[in-house]
Design a protein that fits this description.
Layout lengths: L18 H4 L15 H10 L4 E3 H6 L4 H9 L3 E5 L2 E4 L6 H12 L4 E2 L1 H7 L11 E4 L11 E4 L8 E4 L2 E4 L1 H8 L5 H13 L5 H11 L5 H9 L5 H14 L6 E8 L2 E9 L4 E6 L1 H4 L2 H16 L3 E6 H5 L2 H10 L9 H6 L4
Parallel strand pairs: 5-6, 11-12
Antiparallel strand pairs: 1-3, 2-3, 4-5, 7-8, 9-10, 10-11
Helix pairs in contact: 6-7, 7-9, 8-10, 9-11
């Protein structure tokens, strides 16, 4: 029988030697590239995931469920939530806890409410149970996690920040209003604005889109004291006009009336209707009020009707304000002006 010859320098390695199972496999092409062991893949992936991986991710790295269980017993994997583990040690950072919570609940889960506000640095994290929101019912509860359901949680409300799926800053603040008091919400809104994570216009639009919900009254009280600049209020009023479906007005178009140049905030020339945004920051003094009265007198003498909208009316009484604008005769596309006036125009 032919006996296979070995190179003199070759050291025989028994087939059952454990090293044969853990050493790298040479690639057929390069002869030098190695295939990493599953534990190496796990370590690298965990480094990109705040140190936490789900059971499915561990299996993707090459470990079997039985091998995962062995590493749990040996203290290399530490269970955090259902089927989610910390790799190497259990002292994960808050970001690791937040990411683990979303992985435990499901692929469509987003960090939300107080935990999301902490992730955005609007409030200080206090170690409470993290909260996540999902857009579907029937999600199994998970010990140590507060799960919320929202039928209006869409793509516009969720993003990834530092690798964690989280509600957007505006959505986070709207949700936060339902779980904290006025003072903490006021602090969160102030920090969000200071960090330029969100603008007043975006925050108001999100609150309006989501409608009345838990915490609406709290958020309204905070927004009432926001004291926006003139441009911010004009943005909010313009959004209100557009969202209500009115014909788009001319914006900041100048008029020459009685030798004076008047710039109306929003004007419908054909209907001769003007909507003025009255910002407290710009109009709350005797000179400004006198100027407003003179402007309104000139516009009305020209035949224009004037509807004035304050910050509180635009934000807290949006429906009532839309009704006032419609009653003044502002048209919607496809609706004859006469039909509006027959229903109680200006």
């Amino acid at each position: 029988m032919h006996q296979r010859m070995r190179h003199p320098g070759h050291k025989h390695q028994p087939r059952d030697d454990p090293r044969s199972h853990v050493e790298a496999v040479l690639s057929a092409r390069g002869g030098h590239k190695v295939q990493p062991r599953p534990d190496e893949v796990v370590a690298r992936r965990a480094g990109d995931e705040w140190g936490v991986l789900s059971l499915g991710e561990l299996v993707d790295c090459g470990l079997s469920p039985k091998e995962v269980a062995t590493r749990v017993r040996n203290g290399w994997l530490h269970p955090l939530y259902r089927a989610v583990f910390a790799v190497g040690h259990s002292a994960v950072q808050p970001e690791g806890t937040w990411l683990a919570a979303t992985k435990a609940v499901g692929l469509d889960a987003a960090l939300s409410h107080f935990a999301a506000a902490s992730h955005w640095e609007f409030v200080e994290w206090d170690g409470r149970y993290p909260e996540v929101t999902v857009p579907r019912r029937g999600v199994r509860g998970c010990p140590g996690i507060r799960v919320h359901y929202s039928s209006v949680l869409g793509a516009r409300d969720v993003m990834r920040h530092e690798g964690i799926p989280v509600t957007t800053p505006a959505r986070t603040l709207v949700d936060l209003a339902g779980v904290v008091n006025d003072n903490l919400l006021r602090t969160a809104v102030r920090r969000a604005l200071a960090k330029r994570r969100v603008g007043i216009r975006q925050l108001v639009a999100t609150r309006r889109r989501l409608g009345r919900r838990r915490g609406s009254a709290t958020l309204n009280r905070v927004l009432r004291a926001a004291a926006p600049t003139r441009s911010e209020l004009e943005d909010v009023v313009f959004d209100l006009i557009v969202d209500a479906g009115f014909v788009r007005p001319d914006v900041n178009q100048p008029l020459l009336l009685a030798g004076r140049r008047i710039v109306a905030d929003f004007r419908w020339a054909e209907q001769q209707i003007v909507v003025e945004a009255d910002s407290r920051a710009w109009h709350d003094n005797p000179l400004a009020r006198a100027d407003d009265a003179e402007r309104q007198t000139l516009l009305e003498a020209h035949g224009d009707g004037v509807v004035r909208v304050t910050w509180e009316q635009a934000v807290m009484r949006a429906r009532e304000t839309v009704a006032r604008i419609e009653a003044a005769g502002v048209p919607r596309p496809g609706i004859p002006l006469g039909a509006l006036r027959e229903g109680g125009g200006r």
